[in-house]
Amino acid sequence: MTDDYKEKSPVIQTTHGKVRGTVLKPLYDELFYAFDGIPYAVPPLGTLRFKEPHDIKPWYGIRDCSKPQSKCLQVSSYTKLVEGSEDCLYLNISVKKLISEKPLPIMVYIHGGGYKGGDSSRRAWGPDYFMKEDVIYISIGHRLGPLGFLSFADSSLEIPGNAGLKDIVLALRWIKANASRFNGDPERITLFGHSSGSMIVHLLLVSPQTEGLFHKAILMAGYSMELNRLPNMEFRLAKHLGYEGENINGQVLDYLSKADPNLLVSADFFTAAEKSKGFFMPFVPCVESYATQNAVLLGEPIDLHRTAWGNRIPIILGANSGEGLGVFNNLKKNPTQLKDYQSSPERVLPSTLRNRCDPGKRRQLAQQLLSHFCEVHGHQLTMEYLQNLDSLFTHNMVHSMDRVIQSRLAYGKGPTYLYRFDFDSPDFNFYRIRYGGKEVRGVGHVDELGYIFVIPATFKLDQSRPEFTAIRRMVAMWVSFAATSDPNADITKPLVQWTPVTRFGTRMLLNISEDLKFIPQPEYSQLKFYERLFVQAEVPLF
Predict the structure, then answer these.
(1) Could you write out the three-class secondary structure of 417-455?
(2) pLDDT over 60 (residue 2)
(3) CB-CB contact of 205 with 234 (8 Å)
(4) What is the tally of structural domains in the chain?
(5) How, if at all, do strands 508-512 and 516-520 pair?
(6) 302 and 386 belong to one structural domain
(7) How far apart are CA 62 and CA 9, in angstroms?
(8) Contact present, 168 and 110 (Cβ < 8 Å)
(9) Which of 84, 169, 276, 510 could be stapled to 71 by a disulfide with Cβ–Cβ 3.0 to 4.6 Å?
(10) Could you report the per-residue pLDDT of 317-362, keeping only the tens digit for each?
(11) pLDDT value at position 1?
(12) Which distant-in-sequence residues (6+ apart) come within 8 Å of 333 by Cβ?
């Protein structure tokens, strides 16, 4: 087969059977091959619900992989309806060239969505921009919400937790085994993710299960030094759905195993008081309460970090200049929610401090944080402090990232490249526009993804626009990093030299806007204040 794309339905022999793909024409007209909906595990149905994934049996004949499969069962953030399927353990592969002189680097993406939503397919995150480069792009569907993160301490039930993470580990094993069949280099695999997907990448950097399955990582706006899982979520879910028994693991599991899956994923059982304090994610990764052969996390990430294999590999990490903009937009639309901040100032705390302090200490730390950013106490907050709250929540994200950087500098050998995405486009920052409207400006959470993926709101840009240039640069840097471990791409080298963070001296980062600039980190001066809060709470930083 030659790479003139004459073969419209290419067939590849994988370790588990043959798959037939298709040729796609992306937004900017250069063709690529797509193999969508390749199964990597047995569908987790019936008695396999909540259990760790099982390797799929080989199939006979040729499997059609020309279209994406269903996303994992969830409540859609757009329609608020239950969408997707329990049968969702599939991966999607986009390949620029099936034949080349040297095999291509591989970039594997983990989508975000609060561990409970999101879609891995090109319906949500089209890889068109990556397909201008010599790279293979792969995305992984994994179980979400209670289906992916239920956990029971009773070892006889065989549900220690983190099934959703174990899905990804099994998929990474499949990718490693099949890389060369798609013209990929099994020794140049980069794992990258955004938001909760970035948190998953962070967790897999400290899990012994993943050593050798990827060789570099990119973490975009999501960090998890502690897991902050709340107790009794399984029992509360069952009670919410009508269970009347005691909190006995086996009986709770029996009830949930028979429950309607749509009701499982749509159950909303946090109280109004809990929501006012900022609780909204019941099912997240956990420290597994007993060891198994496939255990992903047997300790808190902060502790695993100190000796993790992932400290040896290069990473890129970063966040957006207005990560707190979501809070700003939300309060602008729903000013009555300001009452939640007035009555529960602990809502502004990083989740680690909120979960690890007694109520008195929480309130005290929250008042300090509000006084620092807003110069008022919680009960005095008014709408004129929205900008200050935006800054506060942005710094919460930047500080969670800083803890990862400090841990890497203390215990790691691999280089750590730091970026800050700061492109404030009037019409191309799709998430800011979606939640705040065109009149709000700034660079909110998720806005950077419009510069590396084609999303449903994307439109074709005139190539003279700075947004088009930003896309070319950003994708080139990410692909250069995947190919060489150095993000300085041919098109960016003449403009800027991006070097890793250092233990001493000024904390420098790449500021990605209409221009690329290597500058001192603008948020750095506020981070010492957070360190004092952690000291008061007796919570180690790294």
Answers:
(1) EEEEECCCCCCCCHHHHHHHCCCCCCCCCCHHHHHCCEC
(2) no
(3) no
(4) 2
(5) antiparallel
(6) no
(7) 11
(8) yes
(9) 84
(10) 999 999 999 999 999 999 998 998 999 999 999 999 999 999 999 9
(11) 46
(12) none
